[in-house]
Amino acid sequence: MKGQRIIIPHSMQSMILTKLHAGHQGSEKTKLRARTSVYWRGMNSDIEKSCKSCNTCQEMQNSQPKEPLIQTEVPPGPWHTIGTDLFYLDGAEYLLVADYYSKYQFVREVPKGKSSSRTIANLTKEIFSEQGVPKIVRSDNGPHFEGQAYKEFAKQYNFQHTTSSPHYPRSNGFIESQVKTTKKTMKKARATNTDPLMALLCLRATPINSTLPSPAELLFGRPIQDNLPKKIPKGKTTEEVTSRLLQRQATQKYYHDRNTKPLQPLKPGQSINIQDPRTQTWKPAEIKEKIQEVPRSYIITKPGGGEIRRNRTQIRERPQDPMEQAYQQPCEKTLDNPETPFPKSTQESHQYTTRSGRIVVPPTRLDM
């Protein structure tokens, strides 16, 4: 006994750990429960390892916290980098194309019954024929943008097409924000029986903030006439706008990163858990490779075969079971060296004395 607590021998510790974790509480709660009745040397460490390696707890744990914001570089000028996505409103499907520099967005309705990769490519071609071909196009991994027709379109028009991690729209946050704003503007216009196209025109003609002009002025180099009487002034220079955009991004990153923490990079072959986007639970898998050209994006090998791509926030490191490690290692050594004699006790072969000549007697501990 240790006070009112029962001392558990090594042979029973695994069973007691299982009983302690029967309620699947966290390590701190499990340690508090253990301290009311049992004790062994290293108990707290064993409880922490046991809780961390519990498959059920790993599967049901919360989503990962936000990581620090990775900001997209401010493009060198208008229509250099664009984002594109699809959205639905009142039973209709729409294509949205937005410029990263100016924040100007183009909206095209997708013909009913013709939603395909080729249709999306053709609608985007119409916009490019008016505005020119950008250097970079960013989208999600939806079938419309991953289809063969869109890939041929990118090759024919000679632009770089990059995609975000599946089920992680935050990695393409700019276009997601544009979709949200556009849908809300069109919804409000229809709710008040006003023209949605005029509402979008007003959106494009409104200054981004007190130091940045409107999206239309940034894209076209001049203000556009909306439903207000106005005198059209001269536009600001690109250098001045770029400086203010960088300043605006720095402010956004500062406020975003206050409640974030970076996650450690993962290595090929590493055992991990991935989060199911539908059930929000975690399942075992393995890292195959890191996608170098996309930050925090990995190719994952699933246990049953097949590969998927996920963002680092959707991946957790998978701890190994400490009890398996403890019992595996001695067995391997015994099999490799069956005839190795047991070493003599260090107490018989060595004696230690102090400088004054007194013999140091090691403390006697319980055999655990």
UniProtKB/TrEMBL annotation:
It holds the Pfam family Integrase_H2C2. GO terms for biological process: DNA integration. It comes from the Eukaryota. GO terms for molecular function: nucleic acid binding. InterPro entries: Integrase_cat-core (IPR001584), Integrase_H2C2 (IPR041588), Retrovirus_Pol_polyprotein (IPR050951), RNaseH-like_sf (IPR012337), RNaseH_sf (IPR036397). Residues 259-280, 333-356 are annotated as: Disordered. Residues 270-280, 343-356 have a biased composition (Polar residues). This is Retrovirus-related Pol poly from transposon 412. It comes from Paramuricea clavata. The lineage of its organism: Eukaryota, Metazoa, Cnidaria, Anthozoa, Octocorallia.
